[in-house]
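User: My instructor asked us to take a sequence, write out its structure as C-alpha cells, and then describe one feature of it. I'm not sure where to start. Here is the sequence I was given:
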Amino acid sequence: MSAASLDPGLLAIIVCPQCRGQLAPQADELVCQGECGLAYPVRDGIPVLLVDEARTPA
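Assistant: Let's start with the prediction itself. The C-alpha cells for your sequence are:
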C-alpha cells in the first residue's frame, strides 16, 4: 500500500513530529512540507512517524 492510498482524513490530522509541518504523500513515504523536509516511511499501510526512522532530505 502506498502513501497516496492512505485515508484522506488521516492525512488531514497527522503532522511531522519534528517540526509540526504538513505531511504530503509521495510514493511510499510521507514527506514533511515544513522546515525539516524529513521523509517518513509507510510500511504495510501504516505511517511510521518516528524521527529516528525518517530519511533526511537529499
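For the description part of your assignment, you could build on this observation: The mean pLDDT is 94. Try explaining in your own words what that tells you about the chain.
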